């Protein structure tokens, strides 16, 4: 690396720093001539920078992958994309390391029985066996005896293929995806209220707001780069309200932190609406012009005065009044939420209660005023738009709508009678596997052994299947239980699009060729379709050809991608749908004309009734367990638990508990629910409610938080109730060990990621007040 000649002159102007004032390491950096990265340039022969986006969360930060002269990814640089403006979080910085990781699968694995060991086989043998098992099961038990589960971290082109493959090649109604565990409550609420499933405002609108309400989202750890927008709003003087049982990093900086009891969100928001109404803070003109159902909602809100909600939520009644005044009186206010209010058996109602508040105060469809949902997975938004969800067809069409079915059948070239009806949700499919209604399964880009609740039920369901194949680039805990594992590409070895939390479609570019023996998901799906006799419907040589059909299949729908092309995405850096024509700029902000996507153009307000969680506390289980993510890991951890820097930062899960329980940091604490128990090191902090326990969920049994959670579902969205179940805590003798990630036969777990895995203590990084002690 050589320095820009201007840098020497700049260094001479640096003023020596007082070591008593400078952060650790700053003086050494400055004295050594350290300067901002943009003053340097690479001069390595043959090195190229490939512009793309991070593979992890729904922020979709722009980055450059560094590719050496041999065509291999070896590093990353932040990209000055307007989503992230040169910022990357710890996961983004380390994401490139998975591409050429020694744990990569490079040959198909196969066994004819789970009693056998895996062996590496040819693609021909693995494909032949898979197709023969699909045909055997379907000929014996019917087409619906075979199912398919996709994932919301796949490119949209691949999610389109998942839905089409299930219905056209498998001819099965049973297809769903792991976004069922993330965003479907928000999606259901958005469709009910607005007739469209996406955030109403871009991130940049946060910078314009006067009051920002964040509910159930640990932004600082789960969406770190999004924090820049929160800080930008704060710099302008915006009031920050955070609703979360834990005093997270973002809650610690809030003007108002509402530390409500888990499972009480809709009671809180309906009570806030009660105060808004009682104090005359509603926008009556906006309601009269743009909403339906207001009188019914007013009547229901009258049943939730602050005194009642305070008792339900375990917070002061005065805080409800304070939030109502701050939000309603602000000239411009916004509300964003995430899994904290969505992972409930009343998740749809929780989201609707936030929409009701925004609508009643007129904070909809304006710069700096609106409503948004923060997508968890990289393609959590796009992953549910084009057909891999059990009740949807491409373009967000309903599979129950006769006209929608006719339109898709015409595009796909099949008869309407050939298109199966709606299927069931991901968790319901597991129950059907238990009952032997589903006998075979293909899984793509998911790891239910870690991500689904109530592990005993999940393991029993998968063990009951007669055949199971899994696509992945690492051997996940779920894939390790399969009959066939297909080694497929990482995000850096293919191209495609994702839609981020703003519904901005961005393009990921291929940075290197896959290792020998590895195929793209697209190739595998199309090859299976060909061998099943549907090859003519799956003649897609690459992602671009799939995207061309996806654009046509979405044309004229609410989720219209027709005007989005790869070339336009490269030129613009991203386009928000709907975008009906190639000269259309996209739609970054919805409802600016006051109209929604319902036929009457109005917001359909919904009456919400709070009810207790499905797993209530009692004398035996007097506390609540809630789960969530950490900054270093992602979802089931199959990727991040293999990256040394991330494992070193957060090697294991912990139980976050209040000091009133008498534990010291690092002491073994057994968390017991009605589904079992596990022992974690205690992380003792005043930043959590005394009646609540928090455990992060990125690890497998015997340290899997989701093994303890309940498999109760929201009746409308079918999302599991991860965020609240009854528990108790006990002193224990020994902390449960974190298992190493599975690896292919003949491989040894990558030692770089194993060194700190056995650390018995909670993280050194403070999670909140009172957590700096490690003894």
UniProtKB/TrEMBL annotation:
Key word Lipid biosynthesis present: no
The 4Fe-4S Mo/W bis-MGD-type domain, residue ranges: 47-103
Start and end residues of each stretch annotated as Disordered: 1-21, 738-775
Keyword entries, A-Z: 4Fe-4S, Iron, Iron-sulfur, Metal-binding
One Pfam family recorded for the sequence: Molybdop_Fe4S4
PANTHER family: NADH-QUINONE OXIDOREDUCTASE SUBUNIT G (PTHR43105:SF10), RESPIRATORY NITRATE REDUCTASE (PTHR43105)
Protein name: Molybdopterin oxidoreductase family protein
């Amino acid at each position: 690396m050589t320095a820009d000649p201007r840098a020497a002159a700049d260094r001479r102007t640096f003023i020596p720093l007082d070591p008593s004032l400078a952060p650790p390491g700053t003086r050494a950096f400055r004295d050594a001539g350290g300067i901002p990265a943009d003053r340097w340039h690479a001069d390595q022969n043959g090195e190229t920078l490939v512009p793309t986006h991070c593979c992890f969360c729904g922020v979709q930060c722009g980055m450059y992958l560094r590719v050496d002269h041999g065509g291999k990814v070896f590093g990353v640089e932040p990209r000055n994309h307007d989503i992230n403006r040169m910022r990357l979080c710890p996961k983004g910085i380390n994401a490139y390391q998975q591409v050429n990781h020694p744990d990569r699968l490079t040959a198909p694995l196969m066994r004819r029985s789970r009693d056998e060991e895996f062996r590496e086989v040819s693609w021909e043998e693995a494909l032949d066996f898979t197709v023969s098992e699909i045909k055997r099961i379907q000929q014996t038990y019917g087409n619906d005896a075979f199912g398919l589960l996709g994932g919301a971290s796949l490119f949209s082109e691949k999610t389109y293929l998942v839905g089409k493959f299930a219905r056209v090649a498998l001819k099965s109604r049973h297809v769903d995806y792991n976004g069922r565990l993330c965003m479907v409550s928000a999606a259901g609420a958005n469709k009910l209220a607005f007739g469209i499933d996406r955030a109403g405002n871009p991130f940049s609108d946060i910078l314009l707001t006067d009051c920002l309400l964040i509910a159930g989202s640990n932004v600082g750890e789960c969406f770190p780069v999004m924090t820049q927008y929160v800080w930008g709003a704060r710099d302008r003087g915006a009031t920050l309200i955070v609703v979360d049982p834990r005093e997270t990093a973002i809650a610690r900086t809030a003007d108002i932190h509402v530390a409500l009891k888990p499972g009480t969100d809709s009671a809180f928001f309906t009570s806030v609406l009660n105060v808004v109404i009682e104090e005359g803070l509603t926008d009556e003109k906006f309601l009269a012009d743009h909403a339906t159902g207001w009188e019914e909602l007013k009547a229901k809100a009258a049943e939730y005065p602050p005194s009642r909600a305070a008792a339900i939520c375990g917070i002061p009644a005065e805080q409800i009044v304070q939030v109502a005044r701050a939000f309603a009186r602000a000239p411009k206010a916004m509300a964003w939420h995430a899994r904290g209010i969505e992972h409930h058996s009343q998740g749809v109602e929780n989201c609707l209660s936030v929409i009701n508040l925004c609508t009643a105060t007129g904070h909809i469809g304006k710069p700096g005023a609106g409503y948004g949902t923060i997508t968890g997975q990289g393609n959590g938004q796009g992953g549910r738009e084009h057909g891999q969800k059990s009740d949807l067809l491409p373009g967000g069409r309903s599979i129950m709508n006769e006209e929608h079915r006719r339109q898709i059948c015409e595009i796909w070239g099949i008869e309407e009678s050939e298109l199966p009806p709606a299927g069931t949700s991901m968790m319901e499919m597991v129950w059907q596997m238990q009952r032997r209604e589903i006998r075979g399964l293909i899984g793509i880009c998911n790891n239910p052994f870690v991500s689904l609740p109530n592990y005993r039920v999940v393991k029993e369901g998968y063990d009951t299947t007669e055949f199971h194949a899994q696509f992945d680039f690492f051997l996940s805990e779920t894939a390790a239980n399969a009959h066939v594992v297909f080694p497929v590409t990482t995000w850096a070895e293919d191209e495609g699009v994702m839609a981020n939390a703003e519904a901005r479609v961005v393009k990921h570019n291929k940075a290197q060729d896959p290792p020998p023996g590895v195929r793209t998901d697209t190739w595998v799906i199309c090859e299976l379709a060909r061998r099943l006799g549907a090859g003519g419907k799956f003649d897609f040589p690459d992602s671009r050809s799939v995207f061309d059909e996806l654009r046509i299949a979405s044309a004229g729908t609410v989720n219209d991608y027709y005007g989005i092309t790869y070339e336009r995405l490269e030129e613009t850096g991203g386009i928000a749908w709907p975008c009906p024509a190639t000269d259309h700029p996209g739609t970054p902000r919805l409802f600016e004309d006051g109209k929604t996507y319902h036929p009457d153009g109005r917001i359909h307000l919904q009456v919400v009734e709070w009810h207790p969680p499905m797993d209530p506390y009692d004398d035996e289980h007097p506390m609540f367990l809630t789960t969530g993510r950490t900054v270093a890991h992602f979802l089931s951890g199959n990727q991040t638990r293999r990256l040394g820097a991330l494992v070193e930062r957060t090697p294991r899960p912990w139980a976050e508990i209040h000091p009133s329980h008498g534990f010291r940091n690092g002491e073994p604490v057994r968390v017991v629910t009605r589904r079992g128990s596990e022992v974690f090191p205690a992380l003792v902090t005043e930043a959590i409610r005394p009646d609540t326990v928090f455990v992060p969920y990125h690890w497998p049994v015997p340290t899997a938080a989701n093994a303890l959670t309940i498999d109760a579902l929201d009746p409308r969205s079918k999302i599991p109730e991860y965020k609240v179940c009854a528990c108790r805590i006990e002193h224990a003798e020994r902390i449960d060990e974190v298992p190493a990630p599975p690896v292919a036969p003949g491989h040894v777990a990558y030692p770089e990621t194993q060194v700190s895995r056995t650390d018995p203590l909670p993280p050194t990084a403070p999670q909140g007040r009172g957590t700096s002690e490690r003894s």
